[in-house]
Specification:
Radius of gyration: 16 Å
Number of helices: 7
CATH class: Alpha Beta
Strand order of the largest sheet: 1-2-3-4-5
Strand content: 15-25%
Structural class: alpha+beta
CATH topology: Lambda Exonuclease, Chain A
Number of strands: 5
Distance between the termini: 37 Å
Number of domains: 1
Helix content: 40-55%
Largest sheet: 5 strands, mixed
CATH architecture: Alpha-Beta Complex
Shape: globular
Amino acid sequence: MEVVQLSDEEFERIRTNGLLVHYWAICPRKVWLYAKGLRMEPLSERVFLGRLLHERAYPDISRREVLIDQLIKVDLLTSGERLLEVKYSQRLAEAARLQVAYYLLYLRWLGAGEMVGELRFPRARRREEVRLTPELEARVACALKGIQQIEQLPEPPVVDFMPLCRACAYCELCWG
């Protein structure tokens, strides 16, 4: 993959919601629907279970759900330079990794320096460190540009049904 970096000006122009970066790695239709203001997450039992886990996991960490620029919401920040993202399942680990990389890039852009991210999967008792490499930064740049293109489409992209669709909060909307 060609290593692409965004200029500060370009990053400022195309920065977006952290959840959209996660969705981009899963389904372009989900990106379009969310970007247009359709919110199906409040109706999803799976999303509810994830929120419940997030609220109860790691009670000793006080800096929780840190909202930055009304765009990204970091699950947890430790006293060191570590950003934690709590996920219910490892099933979408690649999308979660990209989301954490975006947060690291965003925080670096704000002047926080080189932080370390960590994915935490409490149910599996698993942790995964995420560091912003040039390759991962290029994937984030690709995602941001892709999101911008999807948001400009006049109608949602056509996608094929995937097994993953069954558990998606948007399943009923997409597939009836």
